[in-house]
Design a protein that fits this description.
Elements: H1 9-21, H2 29-42, H3 52-61, H4 66-85, H5 114-134, H6 136-149, E1 154-155, E2 158-159
Antiparallel strand pairs: 1-2
Helix pairs in contact: 2-4, 5-6
Length: about 160
C-alpha cells in the first residue's frame, strides 16, 4: 500500500527518502507529509492550485497547537524548497507564509507587580542560600541571570513607574 495518494505522491516519497539519506532522523516527517498529502488529495489540487492562498487555508484547517501547525508548515516549506532546488516548480508558495502565534510563557520574575517582586526577592534569597552550599560559580551565575531579568529601578536618576 502506498503511503501517499495525492497528485504529489511521487514527489513526497522522493523528498522523504532524500531527507532520510541526508541523515535527518525526524520520526514525524512521514506523518506530517501524510497530513499535507491528505489535504491536497481532499481538494484535488495539482501544482497550479498550490498558491499562497491555498496554504493560508491549509494552515487554518490544521488541528493542534500553534507549535504543531508551525512544524507542519515548516515541513511543507522544506518540501517546496526541495522541489524548487530540483526544478519541479519555479517558486516556493510557502516561503512567505507567516507562522502562527504561539502562546508565550512569561515567568513572574518579569512582572512589575509589587507582590510578585517580593516573591522574586524571596526566590533570589533562596537561590543565594542554596548556591552558597553549591559554590560561588553557581551563585554568580544565578545573580547574573537575576540582574538581567529584573529591570533597574531608576533611569538617569528618575524612578521608573
Amino acid at each position: 500500500m502506498k503511503k501517499y495518494k495525492s497528485s504529489l505522491a511521487q514527489h513526497l516519497e522522493e523528498f522523504f527518502y532524500y531527507r532520510r539519506e541526508l541523515g535527518y532522523v525526524n520520526k514525524s516527517l512521514g506523518s506530517q507529509l501524510q497530513v499535507f498529502d491528505h489535504y491536497v488529495l481532499e481538494h484535488a489540487a495539482g501544482f497550479e492550485d498550490l498558491t499562497p492562498a491555498f496554504f493560508l487555508e491549509f494552515r487554518e484547517k490544521i488541528s493542534g497547537s500553534p507549535a504543531n501547525v508551525n512544524n507542519l508548515i515548516g515541513t511543507t516549506r522544506n518540501f517546496f524548497a526541495y522541489l524548487v532546488r530540483y526544478g519541479y516548480v519555479d517558486h516556493n508558495p510557502v516561503q512567505d507564509l507567516p507562522a502562527k502565534t504561539e502562546n508565550a510563557f512569561i515567568p513572574f520574575i518579569f512582572c512589575r507587580d509589587v507582590k510578585r517582586t517580593c516573591d522574586t526577592s524571596r526566590y533570589i534569597r533562596s537561590l543565594t542560600k542554596r548556591s552558597k552550599r553549591l559554590g560561588s560559580k553557581l551563585r554568580e551565575r544565578s545573580l547574573a541571570i537575576w540582574s538581567l531579568a529584573v529591570p533597574p529601578r531608576t533611569v538617569s536618576g528618575t524612578p521608573l513607574p
